[in-house]
Write a structure and sequence with these properties.
single chain; 319 residues; mainly beta; Neuraminidase; seven-stranded antiparallel sheet; five-stranded mixed sheet; 52% strand
Length: 319
C-alpha cells in the first residue's frame, strides 16, 4: 500500500467545553448470552428489503474467533455465524455499504505482523475473505479498525478503514467494493493543505460519514483530550474529557446530528455526547473497552463489553 508523508501541526485542535450533563435513561436494554474479548462492532444493514442491526465481536475462546449475528429490533439476535477462519487480536469493526450492497467487517490479524483483515457479505451470513493487507511497519494494526462505507471523494474508494498503527500513530486505507486492493491515506488533514496531521491516539479512532458529514475522533495519549475533526476542517477538542481507550461515533442521517461515545478515563463509565449541543450523558454502566454506537429504528443504540465480558445492548432516544 502507498504510504503518504505526515507532518505535525500543533494548532490543528482547539478546545471546547461541555455544555450540559445527563444520565443514560435506556428505552430498551439487553444483556446477550454472548461474550467478547474486546470492542464489538455494530451497524445497520438492509437485507432483502428488511432493515437489520448487525453485531460482530471477537469471542472469548482461545482463538478470539470472529462472530456475527443480527436483529430486527436491536435486542433479539438470530442467524449467528462463527467465522472460524477469522481471528482477531483486538475487536471487530463493522459497516453496511448501500453503494456496494454489502456488509463489511474488519479486524487485526493475530499473526506477528497484525495485518489489517477485511471480509465481505451480501447477507451477513455468507462471508468472503478474509482479505489481508500489510503495512510498511509492524504491528500494522494496534487497535480495532473502524470502517465507513461511503468515504468522501477526497479519500477515494468505496470502503475505508481507520486504525491505530504501530505504537500510537493513526492510519487510513481505502478499498474498492471487492476489496481487491488497498491505498493508504491521511486520517486527519491539516485544513487547506494536502498534508496529513501527525496526531497520536490511545486505542481505536472513531469515524462516521453520511449525507455529506464526515466526523473523525481519537483519544490523545497521556490523559489528554478527546479530539475530533468535522468535515476535514479546523480540529476541535472536548475540554477535560479523556479516555484510556479510543472513542466511537455515529451520525443520525435524518438530522445530521453527530454522537461520540467513549469509556471514561477515571472510572470506565460510558460517556455519550451530542456534538451539536455539547450535551453529554454519563451512564452508570461501564466497560473495559470503547462502547460503540449505531442509529437504528429511530433510536440511538449502544453496544459494549460488560465487566463479565457479556455483550450489552442499550437504546436511547435522541438527545
Amino acid at each position: 500500500m502507498k504510504k503518504l508523508s505526515c507532518f505535525l501541526i500543533s494548532t490543528l485542535f482547539l478546545l471546547s467545553a461541555i455544555e450540559a450533563f445527563g444520565q443514560c435513561n435506556w428505552t430498551g436494554r439487553a444483556i446477550l448470552n454472548e461474550t467478547t474479548s474486546a470492542q464489538p462492532g455494530l451497524a445497520p444493514f438492509n437485507v432483502g428489503g428488511q432493515d437489520r442491526l448487525f453485531l460482530a465481536w471477537a469471542g472469548t475462546d482461545g482463538n478470539r474467533t470472529v462472530n456475527v449475528m443480527s436483529s430486527a429490533d436491536g435486542f433479539n439476535y438470530t442467524n449467528k455465524v462463527i467465522l472460524a477462519q477469522m481471528q482477531s487480536r483486538h475487536g471487530v469493526g463493522l459497516v453496511g455499504s448501500p453503494g456496494c450492497s454489502s456488509l463489511y467487517l474488519a479486524f487485526s490479524g493475530r499473526d506477528a505482523s497484525a495485518n489489517l483483515n477485511l471480509a465481505r457479505s451480501f447477507d451477513g451470513i455468507n462471508w468472503s475473505g478474509p482479505f489481508s493487507f500489510s503495512c510498511f511497519f509492524a504491528p500494522c494494526t494496534s487497535s480495532t479498525p473502524v470502517l465507513i462505507g461511503n468515504p468522501a471523494p477526497v479519500f477515494g474508494g468505496n470502503i475505508a478503514a481507520g486504525f491505530r498503527a504501530g505504537a500510537d500513530s493513526l492510519d487510513l486505507s481505502t478499498f474498492p467494493c471487492d476489496l481487491s486492493s488497498g491505498t493508504d491515506g491521511c486520517f486527519y488533514f491539516i485544513p487547506g493543505t494536502g498534508f496529513c496531521a501527525d496526531e497520536r491516539s490511545v486505542g481505536a479512532p472513531a469515524w462516521a460519514n453520511t449525507a455529506g458529514i464526515d466526523i473523525k475522533a481519537s483519544a490523545r495519549p497521556n490523559m489528554d483530550h478527546i479530539v475530533f475533526q468535522l468535515n476535514m476542517g479546523q480540529g476541535d477538542a472536548l475540554f477535560n474529557e479523556w479516555s484510556d481507550d479510543g472513542p466511537s461515533a455515529t451520525i443520525n442521517p435524518a438530522t445530521g446530528t453527530v454522537y461520540i461515545a467513549w469509556r471514561g478515563g477515571n472510572d470506565g463509565r460510558i460517556n455519550i455526547i451530542n456534538l451539536s449541543t455539547r450535551q453529554k450523558l454519563i451512564c452508570t454502566d461501564w466497560s473495559p473497552n470503547t462502547p460503540v454506537l449505531a442509529v437504528f429504528g429511530g433510536r440511538l443504540f449502544v453496544a459494549w463489553r460488560g465487566g463479565d465480558n457479556k455483550i450489552n445492548i442499550g437504546s436511547l432516544n435522541f438527545f
